[in-house]
Amino acid sequence: MYNTDKPNRAELPTTKQLVRSTLIAVGAAIALLITVILPAEYAVDPTGVGKVLGLAEMGEIKAQLAREAEEDQANIAVAAISNPRQNESAKEEPRVVSQQVEIASLKAESAVTIAPVWKDRMMIALKPGQGAEVKLLMEKGQIAQFEWVAKGGPVNFDTHGDGNGNSISYEKGRGVPDDKGELEAAFTGNHGWFFRNRNDKTVMVILKTNGDYAEMKRVL
User: Fold this and answer.
1) Global pTM?
2) Which distant-in-sequence residues (6+ apart) come within 8 Å of 38 by Cβ?
3) Is residue 203 one of the residues assigned to a domain?
4) pLDDT tens per residue, range 37-73
5) Residue 152 forms part of a structural domain
6) What is the pLDDT of residue 69?
C-alpha cells in the first residue's frame, strides 16, 4: 500500500509567511469592499473608482428601486384602508356618518399621494450600440400599463408585437429619455419593446409594468 509522504518541517510555511498571507487576503478583501461592493450595492463610493467603472450609478439605481418598492408597499396599505369591507351591522348605524367622512378623506388623500403599483421591474444595461428586447405575453384586448426611463442617455425604441403569424408596430422613437402609457394587445402573442443604445457610454434602461399579461420576459 502506498502511504502519502508527510511534509518535512522545511516545507511547512512559517508563522511569518502565514501572517503575511493573511494580511494580504484581508487587504484585498477590504479593497474589493471599498472599490466594488460598496459602490455597486449601496451607492457609496469613497475612492471614486466605482464611478469610473460605472458601479456607483448601478448602486444608485438599486437604492432607488428599493425606495420605490417600499413606497409601493405603503401605497398598498393605504389603498386597503381606503376600501373597507361593507360588513357593518345595524348596531353601528350612529357611526356611519363619521366613517363615511373618514373614508372620503382617505380616498381624497389616496388620489393625490398613491403612486402606481408595479407588477414587474426590469433593469437592462446596454453597452454602446447594444440592443435588447422585452416582451409581455398577452391575449387580444388585454391592456398593460408601463413606464420606462433611460439612465445615462436617451435610447431608440420600437414598441411592437408579434405571434401566430401576426406583427404590428405600435410606436417608434429616436433619442428618447423616457416614456409611459398603456399597451393594448392587438392580437394574442408577444407585445413589448426593443431598445438600442446609440450613445458612447453604457445606459441603464429601467422598465416597470403592470396590468393584464401572463409574464414579462427578455428575449434579446
Assistant:
1) 0.55
2) 44, 45, 46, 50, 59
3) yes
4) 777 777 777 877 767 777 667 767 777 777 777 777 7
5) yes
6) 75
Cα–Cα dist 196/178, whole Å: 13
CA gap 55, 61 in Å, rounded: 10
Closest CA to 202 of 41, 51, 11: 51
For residue 185, CA distances in Å to 22, 141, 161, 166 come to 60, 5, 8, 11
Rounded Cα gap, residues 207 and 5, in angstroms: 61
Q: What's the rounded Cα separation, in Å, for the pair 137 and 213?
A: 6
Instruction: Indicate the length of the chain as a whole number.
Output: 220
Instruction: Give residue 139's region: left, alpha or beta (phi > 0; psi -120 to 50).
Output: beta
* Separation between Cα atoms, residue 121 and residue 134, nearest integer Å: 11
Q: Are residues 147 and 105 in the same domain?
A: no
Domain range enclosing 40 = 15-117
